[in-house]
Amino acid sequence: MASPAEPSSSISFTSSSHVSNGSINNKDASGGSETGFNLDIIRLSKLSSSLEQLLCDSGSDFSDADIVVEGNIVGVHRCILAARSKFFYDRFGKDKGSIAKESKPKYFMTDLLPYGQVGHEAFLIFLSYLYTGKLRSSPPDVSTCVDNICAHDACRPAINFAVELMYASTIFEVSELVSLFQRRLLNLVSKSIVEDVIPVLLVAFHCQLPQLLAQCVHKVARSDLETISIETELPYKVAEDIRLLRLHYQAENENNLVTLDPLHEKRIKRIHKALDSDDVELVRLLLTESDITLDEAYALHYAVAYCDPKIVSEVLSLGLADVNLRNRRGYTVLHVAAMRKEPSIIVSLLTKGASASEMTLEGQSAVSICRRLTRPERLSGKDGAGAGSKQRQNMH
């Protein structure tokens, strides 16, 4: 049964309704054209199954190239990839003269991608489509979260997996998959919280998908996501578009017009920049030279979201920040740490007295936030994360 996080696998040149144990299901027998059509379906189905065996049969490796994805070696057949993807056609053609006939070329996914990320499981789904013309369901281990009450239709693992498939489809130039996953991501954006829109917005920006990008930009602009988060996580052009849209929305509704003190905001940005530079001493100096406090700058929230764990510990050691302070969106520092999923930061905050029982305005605790972000694969240790994976498992 397909996962709800998985797009419809309607792109296929086979149809089970026309095939039954290799025989023709043609009760009406209305004419030779229909019989011929059914025979074509059966032939294509057998071809699809035969090509799939090239990927699935580990006992007989006839591959002539390797692609390394997240440390996993995936054997591929250059003739198939070249026939199905213009990207690989051009790449293999370019390398043809520089590879000895007896050698087996090796490619690294990180070198093939100009931007974004495509994980091992996402690449296998994409590769299976190239070989068979059928889109497999996404494995639950990597496309769902470990929250038992989640419907898995718009949680972060579902979004991240669809984003990886979109990067693969766009970069490797498979247009029918681009259209399919754009529809899927448009649906996800309509249901997801604003923080989870960010990875979709980034793939839309990098892959030049204007419809998807516009929907993401408008959703972020209408949200209460902090300006500092937008400026830190998004390309300048996108952040500027969101800023202008927010001004437009505020002008339409004068009751919601927010007036900020430019000097106050400038001092807060200086504290954040000092944290970006890992200079806690400069932070201390800025605090003494102005009337801004760490809490007014939400400096601990910022450090927990974007700084090295060592810097977070140093900010905590100043003893000037409330570890249970809520920001303008109602998130405590621990909630922000849970979104980042860095165990050492979470432990530091708990040690300093952060309350794990505090709820967000949506009724989520730090633990439930972690669960919504964590794939079953992470807890089982299948991702090969080693000690880090064990730390995450113990935290839950």
UniProtKB/TrEMBL annotation:
<dbReference type="InterPro" id="IPR044292">
    <property type="entry name" value="NPR"/>
</dbReference>
<keyword id="KW-0611">Plant defense</keyword>
<keyword id="KW-0479">Metal-binding</keyword>
<dbReference type="InterPro" id="IPR002110">
    <property type="entry name" value="Ankyrin_rpt"/>
</dbReference>
<comment type="pathway">
    <text>Protein modification; protein ubiquitination.</text>
</comment>
<feature type="domain" description="BTB">
    <location>
        <begin position="63"/>
        <end position="139"/>
    </location>
</feature>
<keyword id="KW-0833">Ubl conjugation pathway</keyword>
<feature type="repeat" description="ANK">
    <location>
        <begin position="329"/>
        <end position="361"/>
    </location>
</feature>
<comment type="similarity">
    <text>Belongs to the plant 'ANKYRIN-BTB/POZ' family. 'NPR1-like' subfamily.</text>
</comment>
<keyword id="KW-0539">Nucleus</keyword>
<feature type="domain" description="C2HC NPR-type">
    <location>
        <begin position="142"/>
        <end position="156"/>
    </location>
</feature>
<keyword id="KW-0677">Repeat</keyword>
<dbReference type="GO" id="GO:0006952">
    <property type="term" value="P:defense response"/>
</dbReference>
<protein>
    <submittedName>
        <fullName>Regulatory protein NPR3</fullName>
    </submittedName>
</protein>
<dbReference type="InterPro" id="IPR011333">
    <property type="entry name" value="SKP1/BTB/POZ_sf"/>
</dbReference>
<dbReference type="InterPro" id="IPR057250">
    <property type="entry name" value="Znf_C2HC_NPR-type"/>
</dbReference>
<keyword id="KW-0862">Zinc</keyword>
<keyword id="KW-0863">Zinc-finger</keyword>
<feature type="compositionally biased region" description="Low complexity">
    <location>
        <begin position="1"/>
        <end position="20"/>
    </location>
</feature>
<keyword id="KW-0040">ANK repeat</keyword>
<dbReference type="Pfam" id="PF00651">
    <property type="entry name" value="BTB"/>
</dbReference>
<dbReference type="GO" id="GO:0005634">
    <property type="term" value="C:nucleus"/>
</dbReference>
<feature type="region of interest" description="Disordered">
    <location>
        <begin position="1"/>
        <end position="27"/>
    </location>
</feature>
<dbReference type="Pfam" id="PF12796">
    <property type="entry name" value="Ank_2"/>
</dbReference>
<dbReference type="GO" id="GO:0008270">
    <property type="term" value="F:zinc ion binding"/>
</dbReference>
<dbReference type="InterPro" id="IPR036770">
    <property type="entry name" value="Ankyrin_rpt-contain_sf"/>
</dbReference>
<dbReference type="InterPro" id="IPR000210">
    <property type="entry name" value="BTB/POZ_dom"/>
</dbReference>
